[in-house]
Design goal:
The protein is α/β, with parallel strands linked by helices and about 325 residues long. It has ten helices and 14 strands.
Length: about 325
C-alpha cells in the first residue's frame, strides 16, 4: 500500500481511482463494508482503491480538548487499511487552510484536478468543506460536472444499531470488549514501542513492557487479559496488561504496562501489538505496595485461567 502525504506529493500516476473520504477511526465493520464495495468497483474498472484521511482529525483541530479518544493511531489505521487491501491512502494535513476551503474548491482541486476520481463512496452522514457546507447532494451534482459517480453507503447495522466509532468507544469505556469486537470484526488493539520505566514491576516480580500513550486511550482504565504480537516472531503470546496512570505509585502519564506470561526476554525498543481480550478489573489505588503485589498475583491467576479456558474451549469470560 502506498501512503501519499499531502497534495504536493500527488503525481500523474495517482490520477484515476475509486475512493472514499473520512476519518476511518478503528476500521470497523462499517468501514470495511465501504472498502469491500470499492474493491468490487475497482476490479470492474481496473482502478486502484484510495482512501483519503486527515491528520489531525477535524474534531481534534477545532476542539482538541473535547475531541473523543482515537480508536487507532495513524500507523494502526494504515496497517488495518493495508490488511483490507487498500491500494493508496492520501493523508491531508487538516489545518486552517483546509478547514476554510469552500466545498466546491475541495471538489475541484482535490477530487477532480488532483485525483481525477472516477467513483466516490461516502457515508450517509458525510459533510465536507468550510463550515461543513458540502453534503452528498453537492458532491453528486459536482460528479455530473467532473465525470465521477457518487455513492452513498448505507450504515451497517449490528444488534439493531448503527456500527460507528462512537459506539465502539462507548463499549470500550464500559469495559465491554465483546461488544467492541463484534463491531470491529476483530479484538480491539493498541500498539506502541516499548520504552524504559521505573522498573517497579520487575522489583515486584512482574516485569512489564511499558508502552506510553501519546493520546488519551479509548479503553477504560484497568487490568486486562491480552494477547501480544511482536515479542516473538509470528507468534501471539498471552499476557496481563494494566492501562492507566498507576495511582498507587503517584503516576501521572498514561501507560500500558504489559506482563507476558512465562516470558523473560528483553523487549526494550520493540513495537508490540496488544489485543484486548478480557476486562479483569478497574484501576484502583492500593494502600501499600504489598497490597498492590497481592492484587497483581490475583490478576495473573485470573489471566492464566482465562487463557486455559480458551484453550479448552470452556471460557466463559467473553
Amino acid at each position: 500500500m502506498e501512503l501519499i502525504r499531502g497534495l504536493h506529493n500527488l503525481r500523474a500516476r495517482h490520477r484515476r481511482c475509486v475512493m472514499t473520504i473520512g476519518n476511518y477511526d478503528g476500521m470497523h465493520l462499517g468501514h470495511r463494508a465501504v472498502i469491500e464495495d470499492l474493491q468490487t468497483r475497482a476490479g470492474a474498472d481496473g482502478l486502484p482503491v484510495l482512501v483519503m484521511v486527515f491528520e489531525p482529525t477535524p474534531r481534534e483541530f477545532f476542539a482538541p480538548d473535547k475531541a473523543p479518544p482515537r480508536l487507532s493511531s495513524l500507523r494502526e489505521k494504515l496497517e488495518d487499511m493495508a490488511a483490507c487491501g487498500v491500494d493508496r491512502v492520501l493523508c491531508l494535513r487538516f489545518d486552517r487552510r483546509l478547514a476554510n476551503m469552500p466545498p466546491w474548491e475541495f471538489i475541484r482541486r482535490i477530487l477532480a484536478d488532483g485525483l481525477d476520481a472516477r467513483f466516490v463512496a461516502v457515508g450517509d452522514d458525510f459533510r465536507f468543506g468550510r463550515n461543513r457546507e458540502g453534503d452528498f447532494e453537492m458532491l453528486k451534482e459536482a460528479g455530473h460536472e467532473y465525470g465521477f459517480t457518487v455513492h452513498r453507503h448505507e450504515s451497517v447495522i449490528r444488534d439493531g444499531e448503527r456500527v460507528s466509532s462512537t459506539r465502539i468507544r462507548q463499549a470500550l469505556a464500559g469495559g465491554d470488549l465483546a461488544a467492541a469486537e463484534s463491531l470491529l470484526g476483530r479484538p480491539y488493539r493498541m500498539s506502541a514501542r516499548v520504552s524504559g520505566g521505573q522498573r517497579l514491576g520487575r522489583q515486584l516480580g512482574f516485569p512489564t513492557a511499558n508502552l506510553r500513550m501519546r493520546r488519551p486511550p479509548a479503553p477504560r482504565y484497568g487490568v486486562y487479559a491480552v494477547s501480544v504480537r511482536g515479542a516473538a516472531e509470528d507468534v501471539s503470546l498471552p499476557a496481563v496488561a494494566s492501562l492507566g496512570v498507576r495511582p498507587t505509585v503517584d503516576g501521572k502519564d498514561c501507560l500500558l504496562e504489559v506482563h507476558l506470561l512465562d516470558f523473560k526476554q528483553d523487549l526494550y525498543g520493540r513495537r508490540l501489538d496488544v489485543q484486548f481480550l478480557h476486562f479483569l478489573r478497574d484501576e484502583v489505588h492500593f494502600p501499600s505496595i504489598d497490597a498492590l503485589r497481592y492484587q497483581m498475583e490475583h490478576d495473573l491467576e485470573e489471566t492464566r485461567a482465562f487463557f486455559a479456558g480458551q484453550r479448552s474451549g470452556t471460557a466463559t469470560y467473553r
